[in-house]
Specification:
The protein is mainly alpha-helical and 210 residues long. It folds into two domains: 84 residues, Helix-hairpin-Helix base-excision DNA repair enzymes (C-terminal) (Endonuclease Iii, domain 2, Orthogonal Bundle); 100 residues, Orthogonal Bundle (Endonuclease III, domain 1). The protein is built from twelve helices and no strands. Helix 1 crosses helix 11 and helix 9 crosses helix 11. The chain is elongated and about 55 Å long. The protein starts with 6 loop residues before the first helix and ends in a 6-residue tail after the last helix.
Length: 210
């Protein structure tokens, strides 16, 4: 693991600010988080959380989702955007989970990436939240904050994931990313960073790339 001055302090400060490092997406079953994450692409978690109760109420099992009529599922998820592609992916992924994985969400990166609509961001989310494995979830908040803080100097998600894996303790990486999301929504927003009220301002200034 590459040492980066101030990273340990940054991890500690974020943990003090946001002790509950929880994903904002609401779910009860493992596969529900998988599908909620697919719906969250180019959509807010808050909007997804309004859609999923009806979605999983109408289709309460993987079998029901796999057998869903495409147009009906599209209608339910319409407001989250890109609903046609998302509906196709959800139905296809449900079918693959049943046919190839015994109805269970797989627990490796390679297997998760085989599922329709699943990229590294969603795969890392599943590995960290469901399986408790080291994971680096690179979403828009992570990209923005890791650059502003000085942890990385790139907007490429793959490079950010690789560089954060090098500097973050594996056992802290998943929670760290969740806390970046919480901080990005509450304080360090896209429009303007609230440095005057930032709980990590002291640690942020000590972190430098390299």
């Amino acid at each position: 693991m590459k040492k980066n001055t101030g990273v340990d302090e940054l991890i500690w400060l974020l943990a003090e600010c946001y002790p509950d490092a929880l994903c904002a997406l609401e779910y009860k079953k493992d596969y529900e988080l998988l599908f909620a994450a697919r719906l969250s692409a180019q959509c807010t978690d808050a909007r997804v959380n309004k859609i999923t109760p009806e979605l999983f109420g109408r289709y309460p099992t993987l079998e029901a989702i796999a057998g869903a009529e495409l147009g009906e599922l599209e209608e339910i998820i319409h407001s989250c955007g890109f609903f046609r592609a998302k509906a196709r992916d959800i139905i296809a992924a449900a079918a693959m989970l049943l046919l190839e994985f015994g109805g269970r969400v797989p627990g490796t990166m390679d297997e998760l990436l085989r599922l329709p609509g699943v990229g590294r961001k969603t795969a890392n989310l599943m590995l960290g939240d469901i399986f408790g494995k080291p994971a680096v979830v690179v979403d828009t908040h992570c990209i923005r904050l890791s650059n502003r803080i000085g942890l990385v100097c790139t907007k490429d998600p793959a490079r950010i994931e690789a560089e954060l894996r090098e500097m973050l303790p594996p056992e802290s990486s998943s929670d760290f990313c969740h806390r970046l999301v919480l901080h990005g929504r509450a304080v360090c927003t896209a429009r303007s960073p609230g440095c005057g009220v930032c709980c990590i301002a002291g640690g942020c200034s000590k972190v430098g790339v390299g």
